[in-house]
Amino acid sequence: MIRRLLALWPQPGLLVKLGALHVALSVLQGLLFTLLIPILHALLSDPVDFAAATPWLAIGAAGVLLHWLLTVIATPVGFAASMRLAAALRRRLMAHTTTLPLGWFDAATKARLGRTVTASTGELSRLIAQLGPQVVQATVVPLTLVTAIFVLDWRLGLLLLATTPIAVAVMRRSGRIAAEVNEELDEATTEVAGRALELGQAQPVLRAAGYGETGGHRLRDALDEHRLRYRRGLRRTLVPGLGYAGVVLVAFVAMLVLAAALLLGGDLPVPDAVALLVLAVRYLEPLGALNGLIGGLRALENALGRIEAILRTAPLPAAASPVRDLAGTDIEFDGVTFSYGDSAPALRSVSFRCPAGTTTALVGPSGSGKTTIVRLVARFADVNAGVVRIGGTDVRELDDDTLMRSVAIVFQDVYLFDGTIEENVRLARPDATEAEFAEAARAARLDEVVARLPDGWRTRVGEGGAQLSGGERQRVSIARAFVKQAPIVLLDEVSSALDPENESMVQAAIADLCADPDRTVIVIAHRPGTLTGADHVVALDSGEIAERGTPAELLRTGGMFARIWTQNDRASGWHLAKDGRM
C-alpha cells in the first residue's frame, strides 16, 4: 500500500518525511522504555546505587523532552500536510477528469466522481494524518522493544518472536474480512445517500404518492439493507478479532510463565525479570491495538482504490499532429458503427453527409441512435468502426480545443450553474462584447425573460437552474449557442417538453439559428415547426438509416418520416403540403 500511496500522491517527498518523523518518534519511545533495564539494576541492587541510576535518569528525562518536542512539531505539520496533500490530489483528479471522454460522464460515474473528489480524498488524507502515526507506532515500538528483550535474554525474545507469525496470520485474515465488510457497507451507504437525495429532490412526486416523509419503499429498503449488512459485518469480524486478541494474550501468559521459571531457577536476576515483564507488556500492548487499526487501514485502501480507478480511466487518444484549423463545417458519417460498452450497437454502418450551412433533422423512435450521432460529432466517444469527419477531417485528428470551440450543443436537459443569468450565458464566450451579448439574448428570446425578472440579468438561477422554468432554461442554453458563434450547432430535442408559449419562443430561436447560412446545424426533433425548417432529414430505426431526403420528398414516400409527421401534425395544427409548402 505504501508504494501505491507514493505513486499516487502528488507530493510523495512530504509523505516520506512525515513517515520518517513518526518512525523516529516510535524508535525513541521504544529506547526510552529500554532505559528501565539499567535504572532497575541500579535501584534494585543491594545497596541501592543512586549514582549509577542518575545518568540514565538524566538521559531518560532528555529523551522524554525530545519526544515531546518532536510530537509538538509532528502533529500540526501532519495535519497541515494532510490538508495540502488532499487539495493537491483533488486538483490532480479534476485535471485528469477534464481529459476524459465526455461520454464517460453518465449519472453513475458523475456520482462516483463527486464522492471520490469530496469524500475519498479527504478520508485518505485524514487517515494518513491520524491513522498513519498510530500504525507506525504499533509496529516500530514493538520491533525496538523485542530487540532489547533479545539482548537481555534471548529465550524470552525468541518466545515473543515465535508468536508473531501466528498473530500476523490471524491479523491478515481479519484484514481481508474487514476489507470485504467495508466494501459492502460502502455500497449500502452509497445507496442510502442516493435515496436520501431522492427524498429531497422528488418531494412533489413523493408527497403526491403519500411518501413525502418516508421516501417510499426504496429508501426503507436501502436503510434495511444497510442495517443488515452492518450486523452481518459485525458478526463476521468478531471471531477474527477475538482470535487475534487471544494470540496476544497467550503470548503474554507464556512470557510470564517463562520469566517466572527462569527467575526461580536462578537464571534471571530480579531486576532483569521486572524490566522484561514491563517491556513485554509494552511490546504486546501496541500489537493488540494494531488489530483495531485494521478496519481503518482497509478503509484507506478502499478510498485509495476509488481514486486509482478514476486516474486509470484513459482519455481519448490524441493525434500526434492535431489539426488546429477546420477546412469547412460540413459533417460526414462514413460507415459508422458504435456501441456503448458490451451492449448491442447503437449505430450500424451509418453513412450520411450534412453540407456546410444546412440544417439536418434526425428523426426516429427512442433508442434509434439520434443522440448517439450528436455525441459522436462532438467526440464524446470514438467510433468502433468508420469515420466521423468535419470539414473533411476525421474528428479524431482534430485538436480538442478546436473542436470544442467550433461546436455548440443544446441538450434537452439543460444544466445551469448557480450564478446569474448573465454569467451562465457568458460562460460560452466570456470575451463577448456587449453588442454581441445583447444580440444573442434577443435571438434566443431571452431578453423577454430577463425584462420581467426583478433583478434582470443579475437574477440568480439556483442550483441546476432550479429558479427558472424549463423553457427559460432552454432560452439561456440557446443564448449560449448564439453568443459562442460556433459554426456547428447540435440541438437535441430542445422543445419536446415545453408548454406552447415557451415552445413557440424556442422554435423561433431555433429557426434563427438554422437560418444563418454560415452555420451547420444538426437537430433532433419531431415537432413540425422544427422539421419544416430542415434542409435534409435522416430517419433512423434501430441504429440504421431507414430513409433520408428533404421533408417534402420523405412526406411523399409515406415512410417513417411521414408517419412521425402525421402523428405530430394532428397534435400541433401544422400542415405541410405534398410539395413541401406550409
TrEMBL record:
Keywords recorded for this protein, A-Z: ATP-binding, Cell inner membrane, Cell membrane, Membrane, Nucleotide-binding, Transmembrane, Transmembrane helix, Transport
PROSITE patterns on file: ABC_TM1F, ABC_TRANSPORTER_1, ABC_TRANSPORTER_2
Primary location: membrane
GO molecular function, one term: ATP binding
GO cellular component terms given for this protein: plasma membrane
Lineage: superkingdom: Bacteria
Segments passing through the bilayer: 21-44, 56-82, 237-264
Membrane association type: Multi-pass membrane protein
Subcellular location: Cell inner membrane
Domain ABC transporter as annotated: residue spans: 331-567
Domain ABC transmembrane type-1: 23-299
Family statement: Belongs to the ABC transporter superfamily. Siderophore-Fe(3+) uptake transporter (SIUT) (TC 3.A.1.21) family.
Name listed for the protein in its UniProt record: ABC transporter
